[in-house]
Amino acid sequence: MKATKAPAKAPNGKVSWVLFNPKTYATILYLLLSLPLGIIYFTVAITGLVLSIGLTPIFIGIPLFFGVAKLLNGIVNFEQSMIRQILGLPNPPVSYIYNQQSEVGRNWLMRMVRGFDGGLFIRNLLLVVLKFVTGIVFFVVMVTVISLGLGLIALPVVHIILMNEMQINILENNLFNYFHIDWTYNQQYMLYAGVGLVLFWIALRVVNGLMQIQRRIMYVDEPYQQPSVPAETQIHAPIQSQYYEYQEDQPTQGMMQPAYRKL
Asked: Could you tell me the CA-to-CA distances from 39 to 30, 82, 258 in Å, in that order?
């Protein structure tokens, strides 16, 4: 028999060179979509649970409840797969996929009933609720920090356009005048653009930090922490068990062979 391998360490999945890394901007898109997706997940989960509880007396709520549990599991798996794709993490080990597909081939209702796990259902429900909360919080934080950086970078261009087109000086009452610092507009433009670039770089670091928090919240590293079992052992396990059952039946047939020969 092959020895079971020890649990592997979770891949790093961290983003370096945030300013020029496509993963950073994929993370921004993910966090932008987290707000509407979190609202949809939360609405579907709560609506499904309320309907399943309300329809339980007419027995429609029972299969609906197991369907909602299956749907919550699918939502969590979908979110985990999206985070893995964005961070470039490898696919889960074979043993994790095999355990999820062990009930394939049975009636859909029986698969739901046999595959139902109360602890997993509660965890998935809490993850959907947390996705709703973090979707709102992360969206607000990301939009605020990115807007602050981009706003300072674009400030010189906006000031020039307003001065030339509408004769509006948005830099007339600023900190430089308050501290009696006589800087030209070009010097102020360079300062604002430089500070904006620094703040934008910090904002991208914050975005990647939010993704790492979301990664831990959604248990993305859970499959990597489980002991991986070789695929050959999993595939041939049912065949070996049938072979041993057949070997156990053979001695009863062997006891009859001597008597047959004497006859």
From this structure: 14, 17, 75
**Alpha-carbon dihedral sign for residues 225, 99, 37, 123:** negative
Helix axes 118-165, 61-87, angle to 10 degrees: 50
Q: Are 146 and 66 in contact (CB under 8 A)?
A: no
Q: Which residues contact 2 (CB under 8 A, 6 or more apart)?
A: 230, 232, 233
User: Cβ(104)–Cβ(98) under 8 Å?
Assistant: no
Q: State the angle between helix axes of 185-217 and 61-87 in degrees (0 to 180), rounded to the nearest 10.
A: 130
Per-residue DSSP letter, 112: H
DSSP type of residue 78:
H
Q: Are 76 and 218 in contact (CB under 8 A)?
A: yes
| Per-residue model confidence as pLDDT tens digits over 164-211 | 888 888 887 777 777 777 788 888 899 999 999 999 999 999 999 999
Which residues contact residue 233 at a Cβ distance below 8 angstroms, ignoring those fewer than 6 apart?
1, 2
Model confidence pLDDT, tens digit, residues 56-96: 888 888 889 988 998 999 999 999 999 999 998 888 765 55
Residue in this structure with the two tokens 């399943």, named with its chain if needed: 52
Q: CB of 145 within 8 A of CB of 206?
A: yes
Q: How far is CA 219 from CA 92, 151, 246, in A?
A: 12, 35, 42
Q: What is the pTM (predicted TM-score) of this model? A: 0.72
The candidate with the shortest Cα–Cα distance to 28, out of 185, 150, 186, is: 150
Q: Is 67 exposed, middle or buried (0-12, 13-18, 19+ CB in 10 A)?
A: middle
| d(C-alpha 150, C-alpha 189), whole Å | 13
Q: Are 164 and 59 in contact (CB under 8 A)?
A: no
